[in-house]
Amino acid sequence: MGQAATIHAVALYAAAALAEIAGCFAFWSWLRLGQPAWWTVPGVASLCAFAWLLTRVDAEFAGRAYAAYGGVYIAASLLWLWAVEGVRPDRWDAAGSLLCLAGAAVILAGPRGG
């Protein structure tokens, strides 16, 4: 995968992560924080956007696209924790996230034998 394609994939993964986390948080807010049930309506739309965005990643196999996305999702979840929930990730969160992002980079950009 070339540099431009990698940058495009990372942008799609970041958008997908935001959509997935926002959609799931809508349900969390309804069921755990006492928000009204109508919060799930934009939540479902956000989850649909998440699924659509993942299909836009230029990957030969869905499983590989999903595996690489996992690292981005973990990092984005910790950013959400900090930005939306007001809890600063600790060093263990940061270390784990970096490990996952390294794994995602290997999966996404690693040379493929033929």
From TrEMBL:
The chain crosses the membrane at residues 12-31, 37-54, 66-83, 95-111. It is found in: Cell membrane. Keywords: Cell membrane, Membrane, Transmembrane, Transmembrane helix. One of its GO terms (cellular component) is plasma membrane. It is a multi-pass membrane protein. It comes from the Bacteria. Its main location: membrane. Belongs to the UPF0060 family. This is YnfA family protein.
